[in-house]
Amino acid sequence: MIGQESYQEINRFLNQELEKKKVLIAVHRGSSAGNIVENTIPAYEASLQMGGDIVEADVFKTSDDQLYHFHNGMERKNFQKDFDIRSLSSQELKDLTYCNSNLSAISYPVEKLEDTLRYFKGRCLINIDRAWDFFPLICDLVKQEDMVEQVILKGPLEEETLQFLAGEETKFLFMPKISKLAQLDLLKQYPEVNIIGVEIKAETEADDFYQAETIQELKDANLCVWINALTMNDEKKLFAGHDDNTSILQSADQGWGVLLEKGADIIQTDWPSLVVRYLESKGLH
């Protein structure tokens, strides 16, 4: 059972998925290739067809407070020009032209969060990332679409966020990002928040959340453990180098296998079909 007993009804979808599959696969920005770009419904759909369980979706707020999908900072990659997408209005977004993997302009628009929620209603878990500065807007929309059970809000562990969620009558699923053991003390101060798990980070094998006893402490508190297998670049380590690249180019046992040994309940990856195959070889998923 994940989460507090008093929140079991609202956590039912997540618990059913974990009971059925044991380990869930979150797919980073969906699966983009060819003429399908990241953070769009086609990318999210492709990720599910490749065996993913959780759509990981970045969200930003336009200058007129509308909610769309995009990872700000990736404008050069996706549009081949430099600007801050957050400075645009929803009307100005209509003038943007995505570039696909061949650097060809395509007609697909920047996606509305509202459209994504409606498209995947009843189908899968959706992790909303990078939206912590405007959680009130996110929560209003999620509640409006009657999708509280399906949506996991993720963000840094900040007292302001915890106070907001504690004050909400609806107990939204929240997963803070943590990297230090001391942060667990803050979590314990907010039983009014439906904290269903944590995303942990360990840059080296000496870090707090690489240690088995620390991860077991999370599990003893009925928290699910999200570990990133993402390889962001040549330098950045999200879990001590046991990542997608290591799994594919060296040994899956030294990459995804280490995450399983450490107790990952959710693995975030850019390569869902390969992770599925590996999990199935271990009798999981």
TrEMBL record:
GO-annotated molecular function: glycerophosphodiester phosphodiesterase activity
Keywords: Hydrolase
Matches recorded under Pfam families: DUF4996, GDPD
Keyword presence, Disulfide bond: no
Family matches, as PROSITE patterns: GP_PDE
Domain called GP-PDE: residue spans: 23-285
Enzyme Commission code(s) on record: 3.1.4.46
Highest taxon, organism lineage: Bacteria
GO biological process entries: lipid metabolic process
Name of the protein in question: Glycerophosphoryl diester phosphodiesterase
